[in-house]
Amino acid sequence: MALRLLLVVAVVVVAAASCRAGLADPASNGPRYAVETGRRDGKVSAKFDADNDLPPPSSNIVDLKTGKGVQDPSLDKAYAASLREECEPGFKNDTTPVVMDPTSPYEFDLSYYRHVYRDTGLFLSDQALMDDRWTREYVERMAAAASPDEFFADYAVAMTNMGRLEVLTGDSGEIRET
């Protein structure tokens, strides 16, 4: 029974707790925050649902999409060339691993925002943060920040809020053990 309870854990809680655990690693220099547990969740997780319900990394701020493999024209040309070099010639799928943050790939820091600010964000959805006045101001502030404190606080709030999305109520789903 104990093993069964350990195996029946909400995907959202596992993801949030895993994310928090990864950031808790002193080497990551990430923030510390509480993860809410005990939410009512569905009994089935399906790749199809994730693929259809979550925006792909190619989404931009206004939810526009480009064709697969189309280069974002705002992407820094030298960075685009370096990304092309990482892909094998004639490679026909999109599974080549690429480091999202070449400056500090194993640290949770503000380097991401500095890359987006310099038009070297890896995903169109990241680079699109510069297209909107509100998100651009945030990127500019984080890129220039001397300390990650504001970002860490905002990140903790965002992770908590995402864990509260589409929580089932009443008799729907189940509250899974943690």
Automatic annotation (TrEMBL):
Q: Where is each Plant heme peroxidase family profile domain found?
A: 10-178
Q: Where, per UniProt, does this protein localize?
A: Secreted
> Could you confirm whether the keyword Cytoplasm appears in this record?
no
Q: Nucleotidyltransferase: present as a keyword of the record?
A: no
What SUPFAM superfamilies does the record tag this protein with?
Heme-dependent peroxidases
Task: Name the coiled-coil region(s).
Answer: none
Reaction(s) catalysed by this chain, per the record, are:
2 a phenolic donor + H2O2 = 2 a phenolic radical donor + 2 H2O
* One GO-annotated biological process of the protein: response to oxidative stress
User: What does the UniProt cofactor note say?
Assistant: Binds 2 calcium ions per subunit.
- Which InterPro entries does this entry report, sorted A to Z? Haem_peroxidase, Haem_peroxidase_sf, Peroxidase_pln
- Database matches in Pfam families: peroxidase
Q: Which UniProt keywords apply?
A: Calcium, Heme, Hydrogen peroxide, Iron, Metal-binding, Oxidoreductase, Peroxidase, Signal
What is the residue range of the signal peptide feature? 1-21
Q: Quote the cellular component terms of the Gene Ontology held in the record.
A: extracellular region
Protein family: Belongs to the peroxidase family.
Write down what this protein is called: Plant heme peroxidase family profile domain-containing protein
Organism encoding this protein: Panicum miliaceum
Q: What are the top taxonomic ranks of the organism?
A: Eukaryota, Viridiplantae, Streptophyta, Embryophyta, Tracheophyta
